[in-house]
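input
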Amino acid sequence: MVGERLIDLRQDHELTQKQVAEALSINFRTYGGYERNESEPSDEIKIKIAKFFNVSLDYLVGIIDKPRPITNGDEYIRLRKPLNASAMKELEQFLYYLYNRN
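output
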C-alpha cells in the first residue's frame, strides 16, 4: 500500500525517484524499494515523506483515502506541488476569505 501511495504522490508532484530520495536524504535505490514494496520505510522516514508531500501518515500507510483531511467537514485540498511559506500564507488567507464571505 505504501508503495502505491508513494508512486502516486511522486507523480502528482512531477518528481523523479532520485529527486524525492535527495529531498529525504536517502539513497534513491532505497526509495525505489519503498515504491516497489520491497522494503518498508522506517517510522522516521515515513514522517519525512508525509511532511515532504504534505499528507497525513494515515493516508501514507493506507488507513484513510484522503491525503490531508481537514477537520472542518469531509473536504480536503491536495496540492500538486509543495508551496513555499509565502504562497501557503496567501492560500490560507484566500481560504479564510472564501469561508467568511457569506
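quick obs: The radius of gyration is 15 Å.
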